[in-house]
Amino acid sequence: MSKPPPLSGHLAKDRGGGFFCLAYLPPPVLCSAQAKSLAAKAGGHPKRTYGTRVTDIPWNDHDLLSALAIYGPMRSLTLQGTPLPQVIAAGLAREMHTLYGPVALLTPKGRAAYSEFDPVHLTGPDAVTDRAYHNDARFLLEREGYRVYSHQYKRHGHKSAVHERRYSDAIVYTTMQVPDEEYARLWEVHGAGYHMATHREVLGRPRLYATVANGGLRSQRFRRLVESYLRSVNTWKHPLIIAVPDLQRHEADLRYLDRMSWRSVDNMVRVIHLPLPELGASPRQSRS
Q: How confident is the model at residue 67 (pLDDT cuts 50, 70, 90)?
């Protein structure tokens, strides 16, 4: 069996365009990070943070502000133990109260101070809430050994007057790479007859969707999303990953998908439960 190719990728903006788990997963707490090392590992470009993860190194003010510039808005609960109150008092960050709880983001003063990081710029309540929610889903997967490969961003309706960008900083989906051990197993089983260059989708690189604005994905959108990725799932050899705030809303959708497809829903989608504060009641067990 040939040796699997190295896992390589980037977190730069993409300008070009399994198992199922019904489980209660408490929102992850981002214990700490060191944003200086993120930029160093990324070859000096703080946006290209492929392969980096949060660590247990205590944060200082610069680390926190750099992380907010790189990752964008994050839930204040996720930033427990960081000097968030101090940077808010200094006028470099602020909190926005959202349906996902208080969310921290840079102020114009903070973005100007960290302009070399090309900071994420989101101000609308829905966009800020979605990025914080998406970050929590991402951090949870990174704890399991997944890594970010790339993001797909929403297009601007028109060019930005400031940056002349065609894309905004709002994420549509993130392509994740499976943990190294899982990738090695996939390659051993499927890699011999697998030609990466012929596939738009790639072995071991599932997509993550995580939105919470307006209560998250509606039933019809959830079903269409899973159905649209059936061929991709066969290529990834891994389910599509969707984070949802309300499990009950999608239990009927999953039963529908199980009936309508020749394959088991277990192989089509992994659902991560990241509840809204008001929905986070008692923990729910995995459904087998």
A: very high
Which residues make Cβ contacts (< 8 Å) with residue 198, sequence separation at least 6?
none
Query: What are the CA-CA distances from residue 171 to residues 56, 61, 252, 265 (Å)?
Result: 27, 26, 27, 26
- Residue 146: the pLDDT is 95
| Residue 59, phi then psi, degrees to nearest 5 | -85, 150
**CB count in 10 Å sphere of residue 151:** 21
Q: What's the rounded Cα separation, in Å, for the pair 140 and 57?
A: 18
Do residues 196 and 203 make contact, with C-beta atoms less than 8 angstroms apart? Answer: yes
pTM recorded for the entire structure:
0.76
pLDDT band at 248 (very low <50, low <70, confident <90, very high): confident
Distance between CA 90 and CA 181 in Å, rounded?
44
Q: Are 138 and 206 in contact (CB under 8 A)?
A: no
More confident residue, 174 or 252: 174
Non-local (6+) Cβ contacts of 27 within 8 A are 75, 77, 78, 136, 274, 275, 280
C-beta neighbour count of 91 within 10 angstroms: 12
- Bridge partners (DSSP) of residue 32 are 55
- Cβ atoms of 282 and 17 within 8 Å: the answer is no
